[in-house]
Every structure is written in C-alpha cells, then in structure tokens.
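Changelog note: in this version the structure field was regenerated for every chain. One regenerated record is shown below for reference.
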Amino acid sequence: MNELTEKLMLIAAGAAVGAVGYMAIKHPDELKEFMGDAAELGQKFFEKTMSEMAEQMAQPKGS
C-alpha cells in the first residue's frame, strides 16, 4: 500500500472515531440504537459467511 493511501485510510478512521465520539456525547440514545442495529447486521453477516464457508468445505473437491 502506498504512503498516500495509508494516510487517507488513517484520516478516514479518525473521522469515523470522531463521529462516534460526537454521537456518544451529543446523542447517546441514538448511538446505542445505531450500535445495536450495527451489531445485529454484523451477526447476520457473520452467520451467512460461516454457513457459506461450511457449504464450500462440504463440497467434494475435483482432482
């Protein structure tokens, strides 16, 4: 990864952390709701990914 890309990723990560910090201070109830929704979506994605991986592993491999 080149240096410019790394710097841009750090800026984006910092902005995301700043946004979460702002929400925690100014709108804590909305943040809790948002984080709950995000956790639920993450759990669904994880379960889907794991079941797809299990299906792929169960398929016989051709030689």
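Spot check on this record: The CA atoms of residues 42 and 48 lie 10 Å apart. The helical segments are 3-26, 28-58.
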